[in-house]
Amino acid sequence: QIISPACEIQPLREFAVVEGFRRGAELGSEPVLMRIGVDGSMWMHEACAVFQHNHAGAGPSPELQMLFYCLAGLHKAACHAHFVFDGKDRPATKRGKRVKIAPHFLARGFQELIVAFGFTWHTALGEAEAELATMNCLAQIDAVFMSDSDTFVFGAQCVMRSTDAKPTTVCVEVCTNNVLFHGVGLPQLELILLVLCCGGDYDQVSLIFYWLDSGATTHARRLACQAVDQRLHLGSPGSRLANHCGFLGRKYPRLAEAVPDDFPDINVLVQYVEPLTSWSSMNWREHQPVGVVQ
Known about the structure:
The protein contains eleven helices and nine strands. It is of the alpha/beta class. A seven-stranded mixed sheet has the order 1-9-8-7-2-3-6, with helices on both faces.
């Protein structure tokens, strides 16, 4: 809801073609295929959720059938899709639950389908979301195709979210970090702060009720971001609740009382600002698109 004003809905094929011509012009060459990064693990989990009930009545391998049609939708667009799967070294706990590191039962079949469609894939060291965001930052891919906007927290530059606005074609909500900053006024640091206040994937602390109830202004958010920045670099909460410049306008006792002494948890903060990716070691090699869809 917060970033929706910065999103633009358009057909995936149209967006991919325009982006391909733009990149071709920048490179001084013919139009090139737009490179889209996809969280393969998320696709598998979403496919399983659809058939959680009445699985027996859905026919043989309904999850793989669903994934097949999703791949077919991408195949129709003028783009190359690269899928990234969660690695074994991803955080052990997420949203308060233990993370299973065993390979997903759909992984092998799904990866075979990916290759059959001419797309590519690899397994990240940690979380696929962080891997895709880093690839986007380094221009290895042009956009991240997700069902949510979590990758912005990890620094993604362009995120596409699927939408049912036009069921007859594959449409996406496109949002870039530049529009997010200038249109909504949310730079990455404020997004991280918002996630920390909401509890996020790695922490159960939730201040979002007090945050929204306080009617926090842009100045209030900036002041809180300064506190997070101070905590990150100095390791001390210091005067994070002080209001020296008077930006807050009044006191917020409920919010102040709800903030833990160790907020933000430096270990949780590091998960967002320095996530484990393939670039975190010297063993990473560039994954070049092969078998490009014609």
